[in-house]
């Protein structure tokens, strides 16, 4: 018996010792958690229950040159309800009124809404969905409804905001307007103006503190943000919506008629280089066309006959020959080093002058002229191309600009046929925008300016940065050469390959181009049709290029037939079919005050107006700037141009008075 008692005692001691060790271990662990790792676990607990969420900043808007919206950030709101937050008396007193208000806004029967609210209250649902995709105006209306107007703590309203990027003019110029988005591989893609000027458009993100509640959902702790988001700046593009619409539809019509693969058109302001319109359309599998690759910027290819302008500039400016030099087209075929150069006109053109050869786009004439004068010193010809900047990209802000190819004598890619082939637009590659820049320089009396897509960065009515004209080359050749080439380009339209485009009522100048693409691969060979020039011919205001790839040859493929009509349509539409409305008329003229239409601007320079101006049709930003300078308070509704104003034109100006502008 004594032995058994002793064994029991040992067991008790053993259990007690084990319990003692466990107690020590628990004490050590608790001490470690509390004092050694306490900060870590407290931080972890807080992160899992309370954390900051990013509120994306609203991007700045992208505007056209005439004040129309091209891209804007639209706030979308989601409203939820924390049914536990309101007091019983507040909930019971306001639930029916809240249901009536919500019913009007979201279109659900009020009885259904009231039942959902009461059910959420009974189930202690702290995250009941009320409505999604609300506009700002709808959000304000919801926020002012009974119960919700008490705020997040007392009323239980939960507001979640996100921004959506919208293009008000739709798909037109979509690729140039661009975007910023993350692709399926998680890579941020920046395209067009949106991507290139993101550092201005993207504001600074804000932060909102949220607490984790039931079912893994997160609820804002406060109805104010920890850090308020800062909106981005606005970007004023050079695009003119009126011209853009003309260019887009003129190109689309021609692509559809010729069942072409893709094409592009660019309209540029001669003096400044501001791109007023750009359209890039590619064909989908279903035969429709949409904005896809920015062909005008990215597609570098052999230009064909439009490159012959380089021949004329070099030959005339280097004083090699004059325009009246006569060449024999040799039956429309000439052989260099075993390779044939042919004219499109079978049988050639007989003996014609250099100028006439350019007008009818004779390959044999231009190749003879270049080869005879530069064969012993091809560097002289190529250096002329280099000095004009055609051997390097334009340095546009967009990613993916096409790389030009201009082979240099003695380097890889140069052979005995490179010089004659360059003379009619082969063995060389440039982008459509580079070709346009060259022709624009002729229209601009030799000054080559860089194409630009943005004119200004603004913070509402405050200018942050301006993009003025940027000169690439002050003079690509002398004025005598310019004058001769201008006359020849006019004759191309009057009596040359572009004669189908001629109109006695409207002057144009330019050059047709028809190039074979992939001519070394018979199964893949197709035609590229182009027309590039400027208008009006005498005092050019705009230059324009049209390129159409892979037209159906059964319908036609020559530049004059395929691309030329697009050019003509744009020119006629801009200057003849419809007068421009993007013009502020002279408001200094005195008008009879009894007709309630007063003088709105300065009657004398440096004197202030006394009456409210007529702002209808003016850009919203310009109108605000003017009114604020008159010491008026301005409230703006909408975006774009002024559609109406609360203070009538002709009313006497009173300092600090409020005027409401409704924009279209």
> Any low-confidence stretches, pLDDT <50, length ≥5?
578-607
Provide a count of the helices.
21
Radius of gyration (CA) equals 36 Å
Query: What's the main sheet like?
Result: 7 strands, mixed
Could you tell me the number of beta strands?
29
Kindly report the average pLDDT value: 86
Intertermini distance: 106 Å
Query: Which structural category do the helix and sheet elements fall into?
Result: alpha+beta
What percent strand?
Answer: 15-25%
Coarse morphology: elongated
Helicity range of the residues?
A: 25-40%
Please, could you describe this protein's structure?
The protein has 664 residues and is an alpha+beta fold. 34% of the residues lie in helices and 23% in strands. The strands form nine sheets. Strands 2, 3, 4, 5, 10, 21 and 22 form a seven-stranded mixed beta sheet that branches. It has a six-stranded antiparallel beta sheet with strand order 13-12-11-26-25-24, with helices on both faces. The longest helix is centred in the N-terminal third of the chain and has 35 residues, at 2-36. The radius of gyration is 36 Å and the shape is elongated. The model is unreliable at 578-607 (pLDDT under 50).
């Amino acid at each position: 018996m004594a032995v058994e008692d002793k064994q029991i005692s040992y067991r008790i001691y053993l259990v007690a010792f084990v319990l003692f060790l466990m107690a020590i271990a628990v004490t050590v662990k608790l001490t470690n958690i509390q004092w050694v790792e306490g900060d870590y676990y407290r931080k972890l607990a807080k992160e899992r229950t309370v954390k900051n969420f990013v509120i994306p900043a609203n991007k700045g808007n992208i505007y056209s040159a005439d004040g129309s919206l091209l891209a804007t950030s639209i706030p979308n709101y989601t409203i939820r309800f924390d049914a536990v937050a309101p007091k019983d008396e507040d909930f019971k007193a306001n639930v029916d009124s809240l249901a009536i208000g919500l019913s009007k806004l979201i279109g659900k029967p009020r009885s259904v809404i009231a039942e959902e609210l009461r059910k959420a209250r009974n189930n202690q649902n702290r995250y009941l969905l009320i409505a999604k995709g609300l506009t700002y105006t709808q959000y304000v209306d919801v926020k002012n409804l009974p119960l919700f107007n008490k705020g997040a703590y007392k009323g239980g309203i939960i507001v979640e905001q996100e921004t959506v990027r919208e293009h008000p003019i739709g798909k037109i110029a979509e690729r140039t307007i661009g975007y910023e988005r993350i692709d399926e591989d998680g890579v941020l893609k920046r395209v067009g103006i949106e991507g290139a000027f993101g550092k201005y458009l993207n504001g600074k993100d804000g932060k909102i503190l949220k607490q984790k509640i039931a079912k893994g959902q997160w609820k804002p702790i406060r109805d104010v943000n920890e850090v308020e988001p800062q909106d981005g700046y606005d970007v004023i593009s050079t695009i003119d919506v009126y011209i853009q619409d003309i260019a887009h539809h003129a190109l689309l019509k021609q692509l559809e008629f010729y069942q072409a693969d893709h094409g592009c058109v660019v309209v540029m302001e001669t003096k400044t280089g501001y791109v007023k319109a750009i359209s890039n359309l590619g064909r989908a599998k279903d035969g429709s066309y949409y904005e896809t690759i920015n062909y005008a910027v990215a597609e570098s290819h052999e230009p064909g006959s439009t490159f012959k302008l380089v021949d004329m500039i070099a030959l005339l400016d280097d004083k090699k020959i004059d325009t009246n030099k006569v060449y024999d087209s040799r039956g429309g075929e000439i052989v260099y080093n075993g390779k044939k150069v042919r004219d499109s006109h079978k049988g050639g053109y007989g003996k014609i002058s250099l100028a006439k050869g350019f007008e009818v786009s004779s390959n044999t004439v231009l190749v003879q002229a270049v080869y005879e004068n530069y064969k012993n010193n091809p560097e002289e010809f190529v250096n002329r191309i280099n000095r004009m900047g055609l051997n390097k990209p334009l340095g546009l802000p967009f990613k993916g600009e096409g790389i030009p190819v201009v082979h240099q004598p003695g380097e890889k890619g140069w052979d005995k046929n490179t010089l004659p082939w360059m003379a009619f637009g082969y063995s060389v590659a440039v982008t459509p925008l580079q070709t346009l820049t060259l022709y624009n320089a002729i229209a601009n009396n030799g000054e080559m300016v860089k194409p630009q897509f943005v004119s200004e960065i603004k913070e509402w009515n405050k200018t942050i940065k301006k993009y003025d004209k940027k000169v690439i080359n002050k003079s690509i050749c002398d004025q005598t050469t310019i004058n001769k080439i201008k006359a020849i380009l006019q004759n191309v339209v009057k009596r040359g390959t572009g004669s189908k485009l001629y109109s006695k009522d409207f002057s144009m100048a330019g050059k047709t181009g028809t190039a074979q693409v992939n001519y070394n691969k018979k199964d893949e060979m197709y035609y590229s049709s182009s027309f590039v020039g400027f208008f009006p011919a005498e005092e050019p205001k705009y230059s324009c290029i049209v390129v159409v790839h892979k037209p159906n040859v059964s319908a036609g493929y020559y530049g004059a037939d395929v691309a030329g009509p697009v050019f003509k349509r744009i020119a006629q539409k801009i200057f003849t079919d419809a007068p421009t409305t993007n013009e502020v008329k002279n408001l200094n003229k005195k008008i009879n005050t009894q007709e309630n239409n007063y003088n709105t601007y300065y009657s004398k320079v440096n004197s202030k107006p006394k009456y409210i101006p007529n702002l209808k049709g003016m850009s919203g930003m310009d109108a605000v700037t003017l009114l604020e300078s008159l010491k008026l308070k301005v409230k703006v509704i909408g975006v774009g141009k002024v559609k109406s104003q609360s203070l009538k034109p002709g009313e006497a100006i009173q300092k600090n008075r409020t005027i409401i502008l409704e924009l279209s």
